[in-house]
Structure formats: C-alpha cells, structure tokens
Amino acid sequence: MKFYPEGHLIDRAENKAAMLNAAALSDAMRDARILEARSMICDNEHNLIVDLKCMRGIIPREEGALGIREGTVRDIAIISRVNKPVCFIVTDFIRDAYGRITAVLSRRKAQERCMEQYISRLVRGDVIDVRITHLEPFGAFADIGCGIVSLLPIDAISVSRIDHPRERLTVGMDIRAVIRAKDENRITLSHKELLGTWKQNAERFRVGETVAGIVRSVESYGIFIELTPNLAGLAELKENVQPGQQASVFIKSILPNRMKVKLVIVECFDYAYKPEPPVYFFDGDHMDKFIYSPPESEKHIETIF
User: Fold this and answer.
1) Same topology for domains 123-194 and 198-269, yes or no?
2) How far apart are CA 77 and CA 55, in angstroms?
3) How many CB atoms lie within 10 A of CB 36?
4) What distance in Å separates the CA atoms of residue 38 and residue 291, rounded to the nearest whole number?
5) Closest CA to 268 of 243, 292, 248
6) What is the pLDDT of residues 174-214, one digit of tens each?
7) CATH code of domain 198-269
8) Which of its termini does the chain have fewer beta carbons within 10 Å around, N or C?
C-alpha cells in the first residue's frame, strides 16, 4: 500500500465510495482501510468530529495522533486539524439514545501503519512526496504520510539563502524532498539537492541576456541577485537597492571554474510575489550523493547521504 500526506485521498473515487452508506463504511472497517474525511469540530474534550457524509464520525482524543496517549505530542496536533482532511481507520460503530449511529475512528492507528510499513523503511537519500503543513522562521514542516510531520530546515530549502521559508513555500504546497537524516523514526528533510547543480542552473542563461532576479543581500563589495533558487550572481553596487526587491539584471559573464555569475543591475523595484512550484532536475526515488559544483570548479561542494 502507498501512503500519502493527508489530503491526497479525500477526493479519490474509492475513498468517496467507502462513505456512501453505513454498509460501505462497515466494509471499510472490516478491511481496516485507511480513509480520509474533513474534520469539522474539535470539542471541549479535544475529540475530533468528522463529516463522513453518510454519518458522523468521532476520533477520540487519544486516537487523534501518535504520541497524544503517551504525552509526547501536544493537543495542538489535533486542534490544528479542524476544517482539514484527516486520515483514519474505522474501529467501531456506536448508537446514541436516539438511535443515531456514529462511527468511531482512529487517526493514530492509520499513522501507526504508515510508520511501520513506510516510514520505518525509509533511508537517507530516499526522495519522497510531502505536503507543507506550516512555516516557521527556522524551517518548514511537511507531512510525509498520514499526518506524520518532519522538519525541512531553512538552510536545506535551496542553495540561495532566504530569510524565511515563505519566500519559497506555501502551506498546502506539494513538493518532493530527500531524507537528509534519520534518528530511529525521526526524519529531517532536505530539498536543495533536487533543484539542480550549479551547471544545470547556469545553463538556463546566456551571456548578454537581461533576466529577472531577486535581490538577496547587499554587501560592501556587491549585490547578490538570485536567478534561480539554486543559483545566485553578484552584481555591481547600485544605490537604493534593498533585499527582497525584484531586479532586472544584465548577465555580464558566466564563469564555471569559479562558480560565478557576474551581473549588472538594470532596474530594481518592489513587487509582492508568490512562491512558484519548484522546478526539479532529479526525478528518481533515491540519491546517494549530490555534487553541486561543476567539474572544472576550484571548489567542490558535495552532499553524501
């Protein structure tokens, strides 16, 4: 079975079919299938109420996430799922005093299965599909399967440095990531290795072109302009240029042996831009190493997984 970040199953035909009526839901319970539906309420006891269309579902607090029962995960992991898809396994049906049937659900059991059959088998260098869940100044958190979250540190998002993950990513964005480190089942992600080498990015440009960029930093010796998330060039100093501005830059030279792109700023201006979906140069499922620097470069920059 393939495991997905939460939200991938909810609109699939087989998921919808499992919630057409009580009989279909009962079949799903018998087969212990992982389903998804939208949680509507977190009650005052931190139980999640889930809309199953054919009936109401409830995820008791201790079944809301791995670690809640043990006290290693805070209740915000449950509260934050309101109005979002949640995965679960149907474990029981109960009837209230008015004869109404409620399905008892367990998100924890779905996560346990994901951990045992998928996450525990991942190794460093594996490339996986993830979904961004929230952003912090130090990095992005991503759902790697069934709502289990891992950290993508800010310095691993791209080669070109950024001040905040929101400059690259948005909540709900689906991206690919590589397993950078694994301590038991605690995983740290990386992303920059999938965005191409210096040479792959530099080959997208030609000397004499005027292209778009983003001002990343202003130093005493020049201004760093990001051309792609994995490629920046150095422009000559110019007055009234601020980090974060958009720039039009003339490409003066491209020097692979020194890993340098020399630029001249034509114009800078303020512009509120939104992150674009990443462009990937690697489409495999595993990488043993990533060499960013070109062969003729004086520097050697390599990541070994």
Assistant:
1) yes
2) 24
3) 24
4) 43
5) 248
6) 999 999 999 987 899 999 999 999 999 999 999 999 999 99
7) 2.40.50.140
8) N
